[in-house]
Design brief:
single chain, alpha/beta, TIM Barrel, Rossmann fold, 3 domains, 14 helices, 11 strands, FMN, OxRdtase_FMN_N
Amino acid sequence: MPWHVARHRKLTRAVHAGGGRICMQILHAGRYGYHPLSVAPSRIKSPITPFTPRALTGFGVERTISAFARCAALAREAGYDGVEIMGSEGYLINQFLATRSNQRQDRWGGSAERRMRFAVEIVRRTRARVGKDFIIIYRLSMLDLVEDGQNWDEIVRLAKAVEMAGATLINTGIGWHEARVPTIVTSVPRAAFTWVTRRLKGEVAIPLITTNRINMPEVAEHVLAAGDADMVSMARPLLADPQWVAKARNGRGSAINTCIACNQACLDHVFENKRASCLVNPRACHETELLINASAQRKRYAVVGAGPAGLACATTLAERGHTVTLVERDARIGGQFNLAKRIPGKEEFAETLRYFEQRIADTDVDLRLG
């Protein structure tokens, strides 16, 4: 909305002041909308929502395309360097692309060319609205992982059409939210889907971004060195550690609080209509409320137990300037995390303990084991 522009400028100015660049993601949930007024290409209910959507009329389709372009123009006015048009993960644009959810017989459904028209028109009209010097990322579903999804030839044709329509970059989307194939949980190997991005290289001339389960600098470096993609995209790792990029730049990967892909406080909270956060970084999305400031009076503390709570308590007290002794009966830190990391598919939990070992050293906590 136009009256939101000034509020967004606070964010874009802060990012630019820090030397960064920022793009805003534009997303229409379509039949994934969790309300009775949701719309979709066809009147087909999603298996993960309780509401049956209303099929968009031809006028409604045109109005939605215009809304995407208008949103991008407002984003530019608000100071964003670009937008990402969400065309994957089973949201509205993706729903138009697949016969699974698009059974229209008008100019927006039927053949693959007509089904991709909605996506291509959004990119084309957005480019016409924002001009040539504004970044447009199109997030392309390269693997739908659902029945009656797009085949590879359709995906390649769409990528080429989106490039011709004016996209600057193509980002990789993997799987619809209703897909039964795991794509982002801990049991999925790191960088497990970069091969599909590599498969698209050579089909388009614009840079390709890859994503999913890239959580440490060495993983990202390997993906880029192998030529799987031109860039990498991350989301949850930046909730786990907002200083991820700075630590990677300074060669301090061991100090990164690694995303363990548990989804328990980020996606699970969102799906329950709660504020997102992070299991390994509870301050995520609470930064203005959970303040960690230097203490006016230095004290001595003893913390008993080096499980996750004790580790967080001890290192936070030390960060505030206190003298801290952390006592643990066992010969190693971690408590029940040492059990959790032994479960097949939960090996990433070991990263949290590696992080706290580094934190103990960095904050000069006096650790006494055994």
